[in-house]
Amino acid sequence: MASKRPFCDADFLCAVCHDVFDRPVVLLCGHSFCKDCIERYWSVNDSRQCPMCRQTSANTPSLNLALGNLCQAFLHHKRHLEELCEVHQEKRTLVCCDDEQLLCEICEQSEEHRNHTSRPVQEVVEEHKGVLRSELDLLKENIELMQQSDFECDLLALKMNNFKDTLARVQCKPEDPEMTPGDLIDIPKYVGNFNHKVWQKIRRSIIYTPVVLDPNTANFHLTLSVDPTSVRNLNKSEVINEQSNNNIERFADCPCVLGYVGYSTGKHTWDVDVEENTSWMVGVAVESVQRRGTSGLPSGVWCIGLDGEVLSVTDPLESRVPLHGFVKPTVVRVNLDLSAGRLSFSDLLGQTVYHTFTHNFTEKVFPFFYTKCHFPLTILPKSFNKEI
């Protein structure tokens, strides 16, 4: 009579994940796998073949209860062996902090560890759990920021590919290279179905503009470039469609326009060329910013601006504070850190900080632009690199 082969560790390992079986199921061919492993394997390969022998299983596999019980017993036995000291066969309840080894009480009194510092295993475990929880929370926060960054970059990439043609079709004056605000643009139609495959159709290194303007919010006295990354104030003879003012998104009286993408978390930076403009304001506005009933600066805005030769900052309380001792800026950098509750304005290199607001932003904010000048405000492009 043939002798029975003793079990070895490999008998309890799933061929897909190479770990001890978890809720094992048996296929028609007789091979067993973790329930989640085989379902995931079939989903990825779009077939119901066995990963080992390629035989197709038509029915839903049933749980292999006997193997599952054996695996539980194996794990219990393995953990028990791992807890025992190999020399003294006593339970290892201490950690040697000097050698970073598990010890039993007899090992602790040995000559090798007598003068070392030791601590209970459970105490060290709880301490490491706390460190891991902190690192996990930080990792989750970084993942959320990366996902938001990917979302915004995908949106900008798609806009660069499609927005120029879209705006050209809705221009009121085809011969004019600039876009005059008019009918609403069905932007969701063009951004509703994008995904990461967009990146497979563009270069690894691109020049992009971190903020694009939303033409549906632009006052009728403003005109946007076809990008749209630039805005200027129209002459009276150029203003059209002033009576078509039924769009609740649009600033009805104030010569303002918002960026298309709003922010709730993270850090965001954009640069605005203001060199030739003599009457401007740039900053951020809350989503509920006042859009009707005022020809002055609406409530809900934090900004820096220039009126002739006077540089000043304004907050939602409409308290305007003149800034003295600064040369008239040519480029203003807007730095928004929502996590820290900080909004600052500086020169292009960040060496001269004009002003910093501190505020707990509880509402989504959008880039804000105001101009009464015929010369444009232009959002400057940046270089962006992404692995595909």
From TrEMBL:
List, in alphabetical order, the Gene Ontology terms for molecular function in this entry.
zinc ion binding
Please state every residue range assigned to the domain named B box-type: 80-121
Which Pfam families would you find in this protein's record? PRY, SPRY, zf-B_box, zf-RING_UBOX
Every B30.2/SPRY domain range: 191-384
Q: Which domain of life is it from?
A: Eukaryota
Q: Where is the RING-type domain?
A: 14-54
Chain coiled-coil ranges = none
- Key words of the record: Metal-binding, Zinc, Zinc-finger
Q: What is this protein called?
A: E3 ubiquitin-protein ligase TRIM35-like isoform X1
Q: What is the native source organism of this protein?
A: Cyprinus carpio
